[in-house]
Amino acid sequence: MVSLSDVPLTKDRFQTARAAHLWLVLLLVSVSVTSLAVGASGTSLWGAFAKILSGQSLSQMEKVVLWDIRAPRLLLGISVGAALAVAGAVMQGLFRNPLADPGLVGVSAGAGLGAISAIVLGSTLPIGIVALAGNALIPVAAFFGGWLSTIVLYRVATRGGRTSVATMLLAGIALGALAGALSGILVYIADDRQLRDLTFWGLGSLAGATWGKVAVAAPIILLSILGAFTLGRGLNGLALGEVTAHHIGIPVQRMKNLSILVVAAATGAAVAVSGGIGFIGIVVPHLLRLWTGPDHRTLLINAALLGASLLLLADVISRVIIAPAELPIGIVTAVLGAPVFLWILLRRRGMVDL
Amino acid sequence: MLIANDITVQLGHRTILSNVNFNAQPGTVTAIVGPNGSGKTTLLRALSGDVDYSGQVLLNGCDTRQLKSWELAAERAVLPQASTLAFPFTVIEVVRIGLQSGTSGETDSVAMQALNLVGLPHYANRFFQELSGGEQQRVQLARVLAQVWDPVLDGTPRWLLLDEPVASLDIGHQLQIMDIARNFAHAGGGVITVMHDLNLTALYADSVAVLAHGSVLAHDSPMQVMTDAILSKAYECSVKVNTPPPSGFTYLLPHSAGLATVSQDSL
Ligand SMILES: Nc1ncnc2c1ncn2[C@@H]1O[C@H](COP(=O)(O)OP(=O)(O)OP(=O)(O)O)[C@@H](O)[C@H]1O
Ligand SMILES: [Mg+2]
């Protein structure tokens, strides 16, 4: 037998992942500052800072741009980016596959259908419910849409604790198509005012960020992300299969229910305020697994941080690349994310489970 | 003490186990043998609470159905017949997954000691999926050992439930793994292991349960159970059990005439 001291733990990825928390916080802070500083109006963040420090008051223009436009956009970007990345990571853990992603397998489409239903059919609801739900009506409807599609998907793709990747992806395509078709019908019957709402919503953009949207989406997203952070050990166990997860003491059914809830809530809230923004949920966890390994206890935290940073970065790019006009952010994430996704597929081609 | 009372398991309208009574003592190795499809894995799954059954399983005096999964996990670890792994975990990470927390120095050293026990300490940082089948099996065993590292905790024996732990191992590692199981039992823990190799069973088991067609044919000491009559009936083929003279060297191979040979030098 080898003496244990002879065996150096050359690279303990857990330590690396812990250190990564710090690096990613620094990244998020710097991207956030950039996001506040950059914009079409040419208002200078530094100029405003200097004014505040020297006791001068800000001009009306500066107040509006920084406080009413850029600040909510920043917070919404952080929330949506973290939500999409964490939802992706949880879903991949739940399906035991790195290709599962709310955008890819129809969960976002289901959430979108929920949101569109709320916009178009919301007025037919009893006035009491509408008043009660208020601003939350669209996110809540998006949540139920996402929740329903996640459950259907899980039922179809998973048998006896094993998920078939092919079934999952194909069922996702079918669900996405169905949700898309139903959404199309709703758009067809929508009146002019609703159509305007729909176009705004469907842009897949943070451009419409308001404090109202932040107030609705951020708490839901924060709660679901905190919920996700409790899933780390459980998702690690699930990597060994449901039966083994039970053997090592994980309440499997409860954990799966919570995972589905988290995915639906995070995706629903994100889709409700920003439309469909793709690839964050698949690219972020994948990059992190390459860097620090698949341990979900650190992966989920890092995914929230990196997801927020990357979405903000994509938002900054979308604002400056054709300034003064804006590119929808979904285009930016797709252009950056799709090649990464194809690269993942290429690398995995030789593996048995794909 | 692990006691299973009147266990009946039905899967898809088929009765897999009917009215099985089974028990195992801490401090001993209990082997479950029997032909393919006789219900060994199903019995182990009932004992570990993975399958619906009628009847009752008492683990250290508690009905396992009343225990939470983490309470069960503190008292027994299970090595399944086949295992899978999603995501590129390293060997040491796989061993740590079964532990309550993988950060403190103590759990870390338990994981390393378990790897050391199965002879794979230098594989700690390799990717699990890149290992050979037998190596993966040994890593899974290390994971299971780490989960119930102390055979007795606070006066309560802990249990290893192993489904064919040596099925894909070479003869040297078969002996190594069976030694680990025996040491665990001799330190006060309980070991229940499904076995196909009757020679190893004779060598290591303190008691043997023979399953056939979903019922227990016999359950007693190896000397009582491993007879021509019982084994031939269970396996539905003619089996010859040899008991060489005390000084004699044991032979392991079946007869070319189709007779299986079982050594009993350890009995
Ligand atoms: N999920 C299931 N549904 C239906 N029948 C099953 C199921 N699992 C097992 N069986 C049947 O139960 C019987 C016993 O299976 P079990 O896995 O317990 O056998 P075993 O004794 O462990 O066999 P082996 O030596 O091949 O591992 C087999 O006939 C098998 O076909
Ligand atoms: Mg079996």
From TrEMBL, chain A:
<protein>
    <submittedName>
        <fullName>Iron ABC transporter permease</fullName>
    </submittedName>
</protein>
<keyword id="KW-1003">Cell membrane</keyword>
<feature type="transmembrane region" description="Helical">
    <location>
        <begin position="327"/>
        <end position="346"/>
    </location>
</feature>
<dbReference type="Pfam" id="PF01032">
    <property type="entry name" value="FecCD"/>
</dbReference>
<feature type="transmembrane region" description="Helical">
    <location>
        <begin position="299"/>
        <end position="321"/>
    </location>
</feature>
<feature type="transmembrane region" description="Helical">
    <location>
        <begin position="74"/>
        <end position="95"/>
    </location>
</feature>
<feature type="transmembrane region" description="Helical">
    <location>
        <begin position="260"/>
        <end position="287"/>
    </location>
</feature>
<keyword id="KW-0812">Transmembrane</keyword>
<feature type="transmembrane region" description="Helical">
    <location>
        <begin position="136"/>
        <end position="157"/>
    </location>
</feature>
<comment type="similarity">
    <text>Belongs to the binding-protein-dependent transport system permease family. FecCD subfamily.</text>
</comment>
<feature type="transmembrane region" description="Helical">
    <location>
        <begin position="107"/>
        <end position="129"/>
    </location>
</feature>
<keyword id="KW-0813">Transport</keyword>
<keyword id="KW-0472">Membrane</keyword>
<dbReference type="InterPro" id="IPR037294">
    <property type="entry name" value="ABC_BtuC-like"/>
</dbReference>
<feature type="transmembrane region" description="Helical">
    <location>
        <begin position="169"/>
        <end position="190"/>
    </location>
</feature>
<feature type="transmembrane region" description="Helical">
    <location>
        <begin position="20"/>
        <end position="53"/>
    </location>
</feature>
<keyword id="KW-1133">Transmembrane helix</keyword>
<feature type="transmembrane region" description="Helical">
    <location>
        <begin position="211"/>
        <end position="231"/>
    </location>
</feature>
<dbReference type="InterPro" id="IPR000522">
    <property type="entry name" value="ABC_transptr_permease_BtuC"/>
</dbReference>
UniProtKB/TrEMBL annotation, chain B:
<dbReference type="InterPro" id="IPR003439">
    <property type="entry name" value="ABC_transporter-like_ATP-bd"/>
</dbReference>
<protein>
    <submittedName>
        <fullName>Heme ABC transporter ATP-binding protein</fullName>
    </submittedName>
</protein>
<dbReference type="Pfam" id="PF00005">
    <property type="entry name" value="ABC_tran"/>
</dbReference>
<dbReference type="InterPro" id="IPR003593">
    <property type="entry name" value="AAA+_ATPase"/>
</dbReference>
<keyword id="KW-0813">Transport</keyword>
<feature type="domain" description="ABC transporter">
    <location>
        <begin position="2"/>
        <end position="238"/>
    </location>
</feature>
<dbReference type="InterPro" id="IPR017871">
    <property type="entry name" value="ABC_transporter-like_CS"/>
</dbReference>
<keyword id="KW-0067">ATP-binding</keyword>
<keyword id="KW-1278">Translocase</keyword>
<dbReference type="InterPro" id="IPR027417">
    <property type="entry name" value="P-loop_NTPase"/>
</dbReference>
<comment type="function">
    <text>Part of the ABC transporter complex HmuTUV involved in hemin import. Responsible for energy coupling to the transport system.</text>
</comment>
<keyword id="KW-0547">Nucleotide-binding</keyword>
<dbReference type="GO" id="GO:0005524">
    <property type="term" value="F:ATP binding"/>
</dbReference>
